[in-house]
Structure formats: structure tokens, C-alpha cells
Amino acid sequence: MRKTSLTVAAACATLLWAGVAHAQRFTDNGDGTVTDHQTGLMWEKKTPAGSGGVHDVNNKYTWCNGADLTCTNKSNFADGTVFTVFLWTLNNGDREGNSPTGCFANHCDWRMPSIAELKSIFDPNRAAYCPTGTTNGPPPCIDLAFGPTQLDTLYWSATTIAGNSIYARGVSFGNNGSANPKPSGGSVRAVRSDCQSIIR
Questions:
Q1: d(Cα 90, Cα 108) in Å, to the nearest integer?
Q2: Given strand 33-36, what is the order of strands in its sheet?
Q3: What pTM value is reported for the model?
């Protein structure tokens, strides 16, 4: 067991060291995923609007199923379509006929990012308005490797607002942040890692 742990630790250290020396931060892996060499995270790449399936950039998902009051009174908020459709499909396969056919990009541990992880891919250098995060306009404030990205839609994070659990924090790649009520529709970009994230 100790040998396995040391092997995983060594592999993770190698990945992060390789990231430091890598010529570019993001790599399109050619399988619908993007690797961030700075953090060691692997991100889902979105597909164009109208392409269908869970990767379609126009898809919206809810965190909680129900009205605000219903969600507030629930002990577990994680029953919206982010969990029951989006993440379920990535981690179990095709939902048609409820027959799993495999996991997305051969990984079955996709999740929503923390707010810190999500903010780490907001790129203030993409356009003149990006540093202020106050004005919407093309292009989105994210590296092109990530594929299509909505400008005026909040991307969900897994971070709930302290003291107001009906809201989850998120990032808009047109205005760099806000929060949404969990029953409302939002975009989501899945993330995973072979190592523990260095971002909290």
C-alpha cells in the first residue's frame, strides 16, 4: 500500500513539475478535454451550440430541483440536473435506456470545480475589458483551448455561499463572477484530476 502511495505521489509531482516547465499552460488533449499544466487539472471542453449532448455550450443545468424555498428546506441540495444528468452522464455513460456505456474520456471522476479552480481559468488578458470584469463582449475571458464559452451565463462552481445556502458561487467569462440561486439554470464545465488540486 505504501509503495502504491509513493508511486502516485511521485507521478503527481512529475506532472506538476512538467507543468512548470511546459511551454504553454493549456493543452487540448484531442479527446474533448483540456489539461492545465499549471494546476494539474483536466477540464471538459465544450462543443458548439446545437451540437447536442451534455457538452453543448448552450446547455443549462440546475443545482437543486425545486423552488427556492423547497431547496432551502432540503438537507441535500445536490439533486438538480448538474448532478442527475450532466455529471451522471460523464461518469456513467449514455443515459439513453439508462444503460451506462462508459465514462467521458476514460475517466469516471468528473465533478464541478470549486470557485477557486473555476476562477483560475478566467483569463484577464484575453480582451481589454477582461481585467475589470464589468463589461460583456467577445472574446470570452478564457483560453481558446476550452472551446466555445458562454459570455453572459454563470458557470456553476461547487462552492455554496456561506450563510445563504440557496446560492452557489460561479464565474461568468464575460464579467468574472457572481452567484446564482441553485434552482436556476446555469452552465457548468466539469473538472477532474489524478492528483489533489493545488488550488483550494
A1: 7
A2: 26-28, 33-36, 42-44, 191-192
A3: 0.81
Measure Cα distances from 30 to 44, 105, 158 in Å: 11, 10, 26
Which residues share a beta bridge with 179? 169
Q: Please give the Cα distance from 54 to 71 (Å, whole number).
A: 24
Q: How far apart are CA 28 and CA 145, in angstroms?
A: 6
- Indicate whether 94 pLDDT > 70: no
| pLDDT over threshold 90, residue 127 | no
Residue 65 CA to residue 121 CA, distance in Å, equals 28
Looking at residue 45, the DSSP 8-state letter turns out to be P
pLDDT tens string 11-26: 464 444 444 555 799 9
| CB contact set of 42 (below 8 Å; sequence gap of 6+) | 29, 33, 34, 35, 36, 105, 107, 191, 192, 193, 194
